[in-house]
Write a structure and sequence with these properties.
Helix content is 77%, strand content 0%. The protein has 260 residues and is an all-alpha fold. Helix 7 runs antiparallel to helix 8 (234-242).
């Protein structure tokens, strides 16, 4: 569970409530069902126009991944690749075939299968990079849809404001209602801004960071697979892969993988 996401949602809500209360307002003053229907409901149903039904319905599941801390096993990649490289140098490339089915990472398994089959290094890189690019393209499609929703929300907020102003202008003879009606009209703009800047865009940003982390792990696997295919020294290969890690993670395993 990514506690940072929860802190952001709860903390943001707390700051909004505090700002309303300390400015002399009330929570009831910013709660309006028609405004919520226009902004939240309207912007979401716009997604059914922008995306296929399956995508529009699946957005919440994808956004839910922002509540999880992804683990792509970068440290294990370094350790496993070095062990596989040492095995290949001792027993030959074909010896890797015995343990392929035990590998949990399908991307690593695919690359090593190509190595065992005697595939040229350039072809291996092309196949693996294409696989990685297709995974990233699918991720970016989802992130793009979420960002699109973030763009629709303020627009529907403005539409709600215009609708509220029209209703207000139609009742100008009742001067006592002008202030409350104006406040309600502006609530939809508030809702649209809150959706875009407090919730939806931050979710997309976190998912973008998850994608970058996964792509980095796949780049590590590609480098490791090609090093094994080329018969590179396991220690040199480990040093290459360590450069992908942050300083803390690198320090935790550096002494083990670079030992003589």
């Amino acid at each position: 569970m990514d506690i940072a996401t929860i802190i952001g949602i709860v903390g943001g809500a707390a700051m909004i409530v505090m700002s309303v209360v300390t400015s002399g307002g009330t929570l009831g003053g910013i709660i309006d069902i028609p405004s919520a229907a226009m902004t939240i409901g309207g912007s979401y149903f716009a997604m059914f126009i922008a995306a296929p039904l399956k995508k529009a319905l699946g957005m919440f599941k994808i956004m839910g991944r922002a509540f999880k801390i992804p683990n792509f096993g970068e440290k294990n990649i370094v350790i496993n690749m070095q062990a596989l490289s040492e095995k290949a140098r001792r027993e030959g490339i074909l010896a890797l075939e015995d343990g392929l089915d035990d590998l949990e990472d399908p991307f690593m398994k695919m690359g090593l299968r190509l190595v065992v089959d005697g595939t040229d290094g350039n072809i291996i890189r092309a196949i693996m990079e294409n696989e990685m690019n297709q995974v990233e393209a699918r991720h970016m499609e989802w992130i793009g849809l979420i960002n699109a929703w973030a763009g629709f929300a303020p627009g529907f907020g403005m539409m709600g404001t215009v609708v509220g102003l029209i209703g207000m202008l139609n009742n100008l003879e009742d001067k006592s209602s002008l202030g409350p009606n104006m406040a309600v009209a502006l609530i939809t703009t508030l809702y649209g801004s809150m959706m875009a800047n407090w919730l939806i865009t931050p979710f997309a940003t976190k998912l973008l960071a998850h994608n970058a982390q996964e792509m980095r792990s796949k780049e590590m696997i590609i480098e490791g697979v090609l090093a094994i295919q080329a018969g590179e020294n396991p220690r040199i290969m480990a040093q290459k892969l360590l450069t992908y890690l942050d300083p803390v993670s690198r320090k935790a395993i550096e002494a083990d993988v670079l030992k003589d």
